[in-house]
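Lab channel / #folding
Pinned by the channel admin:
"Please post every new chain as: sequence first, then the structure tokens as a reply. Keep commentary short and put observations after the output so the thread stays searchable."

First post following the new format, from NK:
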Amino acid sequence: MSRADRLIERSLGEGLGPEEERELRGLLRADADARARYDGLRAVARVAAGRAPDEATDAELDRLGAALRQRRAAAAAPAQPSLAQRLWPFVAVATAATAVLMLWPRSVHHDGRLTRGGGVAAPALCSVEAYAVAGTPDDAAAPRRLGPGDRLRLSDYLQLRYYSADPEVRWLYVFGLDARMQPLDYYPRPDAAESVPIEPGDPQSMGRSIRLEKRHQPGPLKVIGLCSRVPLHREAVLRGVATMRAAAVGVRAVDHVPVDGVAQTTVLDLEVVP
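Reply from TO:
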């Protein structure tokens, strides 16, 4: 088994430390075949855990790791099978899970209450909606709902709303990431230190508009919402972002933030133009 395959297996199982995570990312950048194996096995693991192919949680990956360790312990033959062979039992589960996800009612793709996803999406229990407002909040055009890839001007204001369908998910931490992978405080505001409380029900405004000219710059902007059952502290979120930055993760590749206690993550890719 190659070094890349060993790191891939551990990444999908018990997880990697910062140094090994950086090593794995370097190997994946240099080896297209290893990257393809990693992406394929990661998607299989996510679907096998009952989630969309592009969404997973640490708890689900922990369960996958436990299953892998149990399978290795039960193996009678001394010869080690390939990584793909060890994950083969999950492929059958993934096939059935994919069929179920593909038959999910299509209306869930149009209500704006989805986590970031690809061709298959699951209904979000908590999500964030973004709107652009041209002019000033007191004298402005109607807010324009923003979707993936939409542009907004540096002169615009950003308004955020949230939706929660889970009465146990009572906290939300929303921030932006710019091209430099620098976090931009949205909610909580800079003078607070933890997630803001939210209520289940219809979409609700998160508060005052955000003036983009103040701290933003032209380029990619990723709006990230971390829904949780307990408050998340700013230090933990900043540590998660710093870990990704140290691993040379680019802002366009961010689909989650490694922070303990996150129940669901929503991500919106935007572009700020002059």
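NK: Helices lie at 3-12, 18-30, 32-48, 58-74, 83-86, 88-102, 212-215, 234-246.
TO: also worth noting, The longest strand covers residues 262-273.
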